[in-house]
Amino acid sequence: MLERGHGAMLFTGATAGVKAGARSAAFGPAKFALRGLAQSLARDLGPRGIHCVYVNIDGMIDIPGRERPKQIAEQDMLKPDAIAEAYWYFAHQDRSAWSMEAELRPFKEKF
Hints:
Layout: E1 7-14, H1 27-45, E2 50-57, H2 80-91, E3 101-104
Parallel strand pairs: 1-2, 2-3
């Protein structure tokens, strides 16, 4: 990527990497570290043409073939195709308007 002067690195985070939960002692610190890595790489590699984005996935993902909990409506979950479309967009953004951090969540997700 450096030789070509362009490329993209997309890092998948979670809400635990932005605000620690009471029961995320193992998961949260790892996502905090990943967010820090993405920020550091964005500052280092961005000026050299490498777009680095931390994407916070805030919600349950509706994984095909996996049974959805009965109390969760289908519309309350993130669709894999919608996530992929967002990642495609981030990877192909114009250099004049790069996202460095983004959050993806269902429209009804409380935040």
